[in-house]
Structure formats: C-alpha cells, structure tokens
Amino acid sequence: MKLIGLVIVMLSAGCNLIPIDNLPCPCVFGWTCSASTHRCVPGGDGSDAGLPGDAALADAPPLSCSQLGFPPGVLPTSGTEPVALADVDGDGDADVVMANYGFDTVTVKAGNGDATFATGIDYPTGRAPYSVTVADVNGDGKLDLVAPNNIGSMVSVLTGNGHGGFAGKVDYPVEWDADSSAVKDLNGDGQPDLVVAHALGVSVLLGQRGGTFAAKVNYPAGSGPVSVAAADVNGDCKPDVMVINYSSSTVSVLIGNGDGTFRAKVDYPTGLTPYSIVVADVNDDGKPDLVVSNLNDSAVNVLLGNGDGTFRTKLDFPVGPWTLALAVVDVNGDHKLDVMVVNQDANTLSVLLGNGDGTFRAKVDYATDEKPLSIAAIDVTGDHRPDLVVSNGITISVLVGNGDGTFQTRVDRPIGSKTALR
C-alpha cells in the first residue's frame, strides 16, 4: 500500500524558504525518489513515482520556495483527526497512528502493504489525546508524533527513530482543551515550530536545536478554537496561522511577521460549527484558499484567497450531516483539486469533483463503516490511482479508485478498538 497524496505547492518569486524537495524518500504523490541521492525531487528518475502529471506540479516553474506543502510520507488532510496515515517506518507503506482519547496513548500499527496492519504498539501521551499530527519536529528527517491533550493543558511530543518506533513523550505546557496542532518553521531559523489550538486561542512554541521547544506564547482566536493550519496566505513567504472556531462559526487568520510572532486575528464567517480546515489553491490562480468542513449545516465552505491574506465570502457546497475531516486531492487526474469529506452521522463520505475555478460538482456519496472519523488518499492496489482510506475508530474502510473520480464499494479492515469516539 504505497503512500500517495497531493502535494500542494505554492510558488512565489524572490522568496528564500527551505524548499519542500530534497527531503528523504519515500515520497508522496507527485514526487519521485532520485536513485542517486535517495531524496525526493519533482520529476526525477521515476522510482517511487506516484501518478503522472500531478495537478499541483504539472505546469509549475522550478521551485524557488514553497509556501504550502506536505513532507514526504505524510498525507494532506485536515488537522483535527484522531487517526493519521503516514509512513513512519520508512518502508513506503502507509502505517496507522491513532490517538486514543480514553486511554492516554497513541497506537502505531505498521502497514503490511496490502491494506492490512500489524498488531499495534502503544505509546503513552498526556491525558486524553484529541488528535495526532505526524511531522518531523526535530529536523532529523524522521517522522515524529505531536498529540495535543484535551485534559491537562499539555501537548505531547514523541520523536521517531525512522523505523516505526518512538521515544517516550515529552510534554510541553499549552492551555486547557487542546485539540489540534500544526508543525511549521514560523521564524525562518530552520527549526520546526508548533502551533496548538486550545480553548483560549492558539499557543506558539518555537523550536530549538536538539528538538526541544521554548515556552508557549498565546494568541487569541475566536470562540471555541478546534483546528489549526499553518501556511503562507499573503505571499510574503512568512507562515501565517488559520484557526477554526467551533463556537463562533468563524475562521481566524493571524498573519505572521516572520519572526514567530503574529498580528491580531481577522475573522471570516464559516458555516455552522466548523470543524476542520485545509489550505489549498482550489481555483488554480496561485493564491491559497481555505476549505472548511462544518458539523451542523451539511456543507463544505470554500473561501477563495485574494493573495494578500484576505479572503472572499464563503461559497457553500452541500455534503452529508456532521462533517468532520476533509482531504483536498485530485482524484480523477484532470489537474483540478477535488474535495473529500466524511459524514459521521450518515456513515458516508462525499466526493466533490473540482471544476478548477473554486467551484465543485454535486457530491457523490459512498458508504463507510460506522462513525467515520478521518480520510486520506493512498494507492492500495499499486495501479497509481488514488484510493480512499477512511478511519472509523475500530476499522478502516478502503475504497479502491477507478481513476476517474469514482470509487468501488468499500472493504473494511480492523485496526483495533481503542480510539474512542469523542
């Protein structure tokens, strides 16, 4: 089961950020592994290649800097998810990482390469981990785990050894009701930093050499922050922060100063009780847009970006009830980004094919197992077509893709029973 997923890259002339290429293999969808250097490059010699003609890279100029992007081995999905799919052991197959809210652990299950998973290994976290983010937080090229804890005002960091094992947790104080995290170099020093959403807004923890983090600095957001993303949305190559506010039904945009500090928030209305966010260029104008899922109005919102850090009034696209996680990927090979969401109350996922101008066709629903939680795109058949993988708490539903944006009937795989529905 090979990792594929759309790497969304925004290019901007004159910037001097660390490029997303030249990272260790294996590589995600749209990147290839150089046989000579074993590093990920756009194009390259074709080994470990994903689908040809990736949407975001097909006509892109040479990389100068990347404002948006996902490191090799990590799938591009929304941040408030208790289950993540990533290649944490470096064998090219998708592994499962689960935040176990009721057990104060994360479980790592190695992928067998055939849409099944090995017996899990549990690693202690703080109290009630609400989600898990997979990223390289200490710059050693190996994927680590970040688990915000809903109880106890801590975020737990577990560093990986590159072979699927993780060191004991290190807890960093944030604020109570921590829900979501993002990893990004916010001050341009080459060290990954943490952003954590919690009841009072967001905490920024700047990374230090050796993989540790400085004391938190808090920034207000709206009411009920639940999900966070970090990306450059105004084209200055300084990462900005976007926060989904569950109670006030807004998204807060905090423009970065490039030194790890942020300007005061600007709020934009979303649908009712938003839950997850993905930053992507859905209208192919080179400007980042926001895609938001909502729990209570059965719609996905798209806020098209103006390129200066401001966003237009939301566009609504109907989906199912109680929409949790979302993914933004080209699933039909037309070089236009599509949107997939999971609808927990309907036990379905919705696929909305993109028109390339920021609008989407009417949803097509596919059945999942009970209570779907998260969604990602991986190739489980080896045919270089994106398939959909949905975590349902105790199972994973695999829907094999036909390459044209349609999917076959799901097959459910057990993954365990620890991931409590929250």
Offer a quick outline of the entry.
The protein is mainly beta and 422 residues long. It has strands at residues 2-3, 32-33, 40-41, 83-86, 95-100, 105-109, 121-124, 133-135, 144-148, 154-158, 170-173, 180-184, 193-198, 201-205, 207-208, 212-213, 217-219, 225-231, 240-245, 250-254, 266-269, 274-280, 289-294, 299-303, 315-318, 323-329, 338-343, 348-352, 364-367, 374-379, 387-391, 395-399, 411-414.
Report strand order across the widest sheet. 1-30-31-32-33
Q: Count helical runs.
A: 0
Measured as a percent range, the helix fraction is under 10%
By helix and strand content, what is the structural category?
mainly beta
Mean pLDDT: 83
Low-confidence stretches: 1-31, 42-76
The 3D shape can be described as globular
The radius of gyration over CA amounts to 19 Å
How does the major sheet shape up?
5 strands, antiparallel
What is the number of beta strands? 33
In whole angstroms, the N-to-C terminal distance is 29 Å
Strand content: 35-45%
